[in-house]
Amino acid sequence: MSERELFAVAETEANQEESDTLEQSTASIVSTATNIPPDATCDDIQKLSAKFILHLSQQHHLSQSAISDIIEGFQNYSKYIVASVSSLISTRMQGLTTQDIASQVCHISDGAIPNVFAGLETKYLQDKYYMENFTYVEPQELSFGSPFYSSQFTGAKRRLVQRTDNFYYIPLLETLRSILSNASLLNEIVSPRSDSHHLHDFCDGVVFATHPLFSTDKQALQIVAYFDELEVTNPLGSYISKHKLGCVFFFLANIRPRFRSTYLSSYLVSVAKSEDINHYGIDNFLSPFVNDLKTLYLDGVTTSDGAVFKGALLAFLGDNLASHLIGGFKEGISFALRICRSCMITNESSGECLSEHQCTLRTPEAHEYQCLSLDGPLYSHYSTLYGINRRSILEDVPGFSVVTNLPHDIMHDIYEGVAKKELSLFLTYCTSHGYFTIDELNKRIQHYDFNGSRPTLIDTTQHANEFKIRQSASQMLSLLQEIPLLIGDTIPYNDEYYHSLLILTKISAIVLCPVISHDLISYLEILVEEKITCFKDLYPSATIIPKMHYMVHYASQLRRFGPLINTWTMRCEAKLSFIKRCSQRSNFKNVPKTVAKAHQLWLCYKLESCNSVVSIDFEFGKKVETILAFESTDIQNAFRRTCTCTITHIESTIIARYKWFRLQSNIYKIGMFVLTRFDDFEPQFGKILDIIVLQDTIILHVDVYNAIYFDEHYMSYSVNYTNSSCYINFNDIVIPESLLPHTSFSQSNNSLYVSLPYCVLT
Question: Which pLDDT band holds residue 759 (cuts at 50, 70, 90)?
C-alpha cells in the first residue's frame, strides 16, 4: 500500500460506502433471495431479512425510524403480492372442472410468502436476533466509580437523581472468538511466517523472538493495541471537548500487513468520554482490557470448533501524548525534565545525544524500582527526577513493559514534527537568499501533479521569522517526498541547508520501507546522527524538539518490532473518522454507547457478509469488452503465460480493457509508471499503455524505461525510453505502488524523473 495515501484510503472507503444506493442493497437481497433453495425454511428467510436490516443500518447509516418505515412498507408490499398471486391463481382455476383446486391453491398461496420481518419489527427484537444468530458481541456498560447524586430539573422542579459515570467495553475474548470463526482469518493465524534475512513484520523483530509466549508458540495471537482521542463534533468556545471521546482499538499482527489496512482489521475495545478518563484515570479505563489479556495469556480463547489460542499484548501504539499517558510518563513533554519514554535524556541535553548509544536507556527492572519510589513521601521529587507519574496498569500484562513496548510513531514525530520544523526554517533561508518566493512555490504546488495528498498553499506571513506550515501528516509526507523536484532547480548544488533537508527525505524513505534489511538499519543510524548534527550547526538558535530526539531510537525500534510503517498510527487514526461518523447517527445523550453499539453492529454485518476478511479489493473503471481471438498474438501469449485460469477456446474468451483501476489506495491509470525490475540497484520502469483483465488476471501493456542514473539533487531516477514495450502480469511488478513521472522546472533540463516512495531492497 502506498504510504503517501494511507489517509486517502480512509476517505475512499467512506465515500465508497456512502455512494452505495438503496437500490444496490435491495438488489443484493433480491439476488441472494433467488439463490434460496426450494426447501428453505422460515428461519432461513428470517436470517436473510436480518442481514438486510444490518445492511441498511451499517452500510447506508440509516436511522432506526427509517429502517422501521422500510420494514413496514416491505410488509405491505409482500401482502399485496400475496393478494395479487391469490387472485391470479383463483382466476386461472375458474375453468377447471374440479372446483376444489382453486380453493386449495389459494389456501397454499396464503402461506407461501410469510411475513419475512416477523420477529424483527423493533430495535429490541433486532438486537435480540443478532445476538442469538449472528457473531454480534454486545458492548458492556461498566462503571468508572461509585454512584453519585446530581440535580435534575423536571419541569420547574429540581430533584436529586443517582448517577454513575460509565464507559463501554467490548469483551476482548468474545471479539476474538467471533473473528476467529472466519476461515480466512483463521488461516492467517495458523500459517505463521518469518524471514531470517530481512524484517517484514512484528514476527521478525527481537520482541517477538524473545517473548515468553511468542518464542514458543508461533500461532499465538499477537495483540497490538492503540489509544487515541477524538472530538466527534466541531464545537466552538466553551463547548470544546464536551463530546471528546477516548477509544482503545486492537488488531492482530498475525494478519499480513497488506491485509491490516482496512477498517475490518481493527476492532474497538473500549470507549468513554475523555473527561471521565481524565477524572477517574486511564488505568481504570484499561482495567477490563488488562484482565482479559491476562486470561488470554494464561488460558487462551476457545473457538467454535474447540481450538484454543493463547495470545499476548505485543505493542501499544499511540501518539506521544497518548503513549506517555497510558505508560505513566510525564504528559507535558515539552516542559518535563525527562522527555523520553525510552531513555533518561533530559530536555536540555537532548541536542547532545546523537545516537542511542549515548543515551541511558530505561529498563523494565529500573522502571519497576523507580515506580516503587513514588509510593513514599517524596513523590513529587522522584516523579520529576524519573519522568514518571505512576506505575501503569499495563505493567501487569504478562510479557509487556511500558519502556520497551510503546513504539515511537513516525507519523507524529516526522510528518507532524521534525519535517514541519525543518521546512519552515529552510523556507526562511531560501526566501532570504532570493532562491524563490513563497508565492512562486505556491504556484508550483498548484500545478504539480502529486501522487498522494495535495499539500495546501503555504502562508506567506512569517511568525517569529518562520513560515507556518499548516499541513496534515499525509500532506506533509507528499510535500517532503516531492520537494526536491519542486524547488531543486532553484537551489545551488552542494547547498548545505538543502543537503540537510535531503537527509530528512532519505530518513523518510527508510522509515516507510515495508521490508528492511539490517544494513539499511545501520545506515539509518548514520543518517539520524548526521541530521541532528546538521540541524544544530545550521540553525543554532532553533531548539531540538523532543520529536527529533525520538529519531535516535528508530534503529533499535526497527530491530525490536520490524518496519516502522507497521507501528505508525496513520491508519489507526483513519479508523477514528469511521468512529466519528458512527457517533453522528443519533443524539448526544450517550455518545460512547452510540459509538460502541454502532461499531459492533457494523462489525457483525461485515463478518456475516464477507467470506474473507483478508482479501484485497480491486475497483475498476468503465470497461470495454472484446474477444481474445481478435487481439494480437502478444496479448494472447501473455494471458497464456500468466493467467491463473485455463484458456481453451480463445474465440469464446472475453477480455476487458480499462483506463484505470484501484488497489486499496493506489490508483493505476494509463500514463502512470510502475517498477517492473530492480536488479543491482538498476531499476526498470514501465509506462502503462493498456490495462487488460481476464477474470482475476491483470495484464499491463507498458513502454519500457531504463534508469540512466540516480540524481541526488532531485532524489529521483533520470529515465529514458528504450523504444520497446512488453506485457507484464500485475502481480510481477516489484512494489505495489503507482508512480508519476515528472520533469524539472528548469528550462535547461529536459530529463524525465521518476522517484520511489521508499527504499527498495534488491
Answer: very high
Dihedral sign for Cα 45, 47, 48, 54, please: positive
Residue given cell 433453495 in the structure block = 37
CA 410, distance to chain mean position in Å, is 15
50/450 Cα distance (integer angstroms): 44
CA distance 31 to 40: 15
* pLDDT score of 22: 44
Q: What angle do CA 61, 62, 68 make, to 5 degrees?
A: 150
User: Which alpha helices (H) appear in 34-115, and where do they start and end?
Assistant: 42-54, 64-92, 100-110
Residue 675 · residue 739 · CB < 8 Å: yes
Give residue 230's Cα distance to chain centre. 16
- C-alpha triplet 617, 622, 626: angle, nearest 5°: 105
Among 177-181, 183-187, 257-261, which range has the highest average pLDDT? 177-181
Cβ(757)–Cβ(512) below 8 Å: yes
Confidence of residue 118 (pLDDT cuts 50, 70, 90): confident
What are the phi and psi torsion angles at 391 (to 5°)? -85, 120
Cβ–Cβ contacts within 10 Å for residue 676, how many?
18
pLDDT tens for 434-461 read: 999 999 999 999 999 998 889 999 998 8
Q: Report the amino acid identity of residue 232.
A: V
Cα(407)–Cα(551) distance, integer angstroms: 11
Q: Could you please report the per-residue DSSP string of 160-213?
A: EEEE--EEEE--HHHHHHHHTTSHHHHHHHSS----SSSB-SGGGSHHHHH-TT
Query: How wide is the angle at C-alpha 311 spanned by C-alphas 308 and 313, nearest 5°?
Result: 165
CB 326 within 8 A of CB 286: yes
- CA dist., res. 283 & res. 281, Å (int): 5
Q: Are the C-beta atoms of residues 671 and 449 closer than 8 Å to each other? A: no
Residues 6+ apart with CB under 8 A from 318: 226, 227, 228, 325, 326, 406, 409, 569
The C-alpha cell that represents 290 in the structure block: 488488562
Set of cell numbers at residue 297: 495469556
300, three cell numbers = 487462551
Distance CA 323, CA 450 (A): 33
Residue with cell 499541513: 471
From the list 87, 243, 214, 104, the residue with the least C-alpha distance to 594 is 243
Judge contact between 262 and 255, C-beta under 8 A. no
- pLDDT value of position 18: 44
Give dist(CA 211, CA 217) in Å, integer: 10
At 575, give phi and psi (nearest 5°): -65, -30
Q: Which residues pair with 76 in a beta bridge?
A: none
Q: Are 640 and 647 in contact (CB under 8 A)?
A: yes
CA distance 51 to 734: 40
**At residue 235, does pLDDT exceed 70?**
no
Alpha carbon distance 651, 627 (integer Å): 6
CA distance 482 to 490: 14
What percent of the chain has pLDDT above 90? 56
Q: 618-754 has which CATH code?
A: 2.30.30
Whole-angstrom distance, CA of residue 320 vs CA of residue 154: 44
Question: Could you report the per-residue pLDDT of 454-489, keeping only the tens digit for each?
Answer: 999 999 887 767 888 999 999 999 999 999 999 999
Domain coordinates in residue numbering, the chain: 3-133, 140-328, 333-391, 410-566, 618-754
In angstroms, the CA 239 to CA 226 distance is 26
Instruction: Give the pLDDT score at 19.
Output: 45
Show the CA angle centred on residue 717, arms to residues 711 and 720, nearest 5°: 115
Contact 234, 224 (CB under 8 A): no
Pick the closest to residue 72 from 115, 30, 33 (CA basis).
115
Q: Which helix (H) or strand (E) holds 127?
A: helix 123-133
